[in-house]
Amino acid sequence: MSEQQLSITIRRLASQVLENNDSISNTVIIGLQPRGIYVSDRLVNEIKKQLPGVAVQYGKLDITFYRDDIRKELHIANQTDIPFSLEGKKIVLVDDVLYTGRTIRAALDAILAFGRPENVELCVLIDRRFSRQFPIQPDYTGKAIDSIISQKVKVFWKEKDGKDEVALLE
Amino acid sequence: MSLSTKHLLGIRDLKKEDISLILQTAEQFKEVLQRPVKKVPSLRDIVVVNLFFENSTRTRISFELAEKRLSADTVNFTASSSSVSKGETLLDTVNNILSMKVDMVVMRHSASGAPHFLAKHIPAAIINAGDGINEHPTQGLLDALSIRERTGSLEGRKVAIVGDIMHSRVAQSNIYLLKKMGAEVTVCGPPTLIPKYISQALGVNVSYNLKETLEWCDVANVLRIQLERQNQVLFSSLREYNLAYGISRQLLDSLHKEIVIMHPGPINRGVELDSDVADSKQSIILQQVENGVAVRMAVLYLLANRNN
Question: Per CATH, the architecture of A3-169 is what?
């Protein structure tokens, strides 16, 4: 996926999110640390572009403390920044790659610590279907790909990696 | 990235990176403690026993809260109401507890080196919650977090530790930590309460003049006079100690700058700190207590997965 395709896809995802959330004032975009925030940053920018002058509520969530593999491996936490209550809000969770579904499982748990939302939707840039270990599916998909376990999906971002690109590594 | 040690016995055994990692993780836990639901499931299924062979209010409550906010299962033990009073040895007591499948031990003991002894003999991760006059590592860490929060960084910071240096594990842990993180340290107190070779051994400045020390420092960490550990007369009276080394409002106002006042608690009001200093805006004593829970959550979290 090239830089141009990527920006077209983000634009479409933003339009789809707006289509389903006509009153954006009650919707909250939540990017997942560490790499989902690059998608959510752009998604939020795009939403602002399509709806100029409208405030978009945007938070960042780190799910490290909610992982299910604490006995196996130590993970270092990133910053969580959700300075508002999620009580009664419509939430759009944003991540870069949806793979086993374990991160989203943890994120659903984590979100409940900030209040009881009205509903939660999932938006991912890349959906690796057929690799799921939990019954979790995205509501907004940038691109769905069929990949085998030994392959890796890597999303590069200009801010961090110097280029915008999605690559399937063998 | 993970800690270079399996236990937290003292700051002396930690590397600079370990300290940074603990402080960084503690900051994330501080955010968790601001949420409507202040509990995370990280240590679900981990059993922690709190072994307190010596009295404690703050530290024990702080550890217990930290464990509960991490969803760990906790067992409490206090020496006075246990079989220790029937003559059981430390190792026997702990082995009996461990045979009930305990993952981590938080221990306070009046004998210096007690947690180090245990670490050699049992497989659980041990966190030292204060051993005799040796170390109190989580206090050192929470003091560092509080200093960093208030003043921006530890590097180059001038910190005075005032009072009973001789009998203070808090002083020792603070000195090790601050030196490792690049701060300058001056210890100040009556000559009878400062170990003779501390300057050579730990690389700190020594001063017997309180006003000069306060004029020099950015932060003053004031210690409690530990009467329970003094088995000989080391100063003539508490009243006289207060006159020479107690911090009063008047003394603080006479300085040419505003310094930050810290105290590990419990405070002897009117001895080392006067009330109008302890309760002033310059004092961050209650922030220290708040940071204690976050720091202990970080230590428990970072050591929890190491005993498979």
Answer: 3-Layer(aba) Sandwich (3.40)
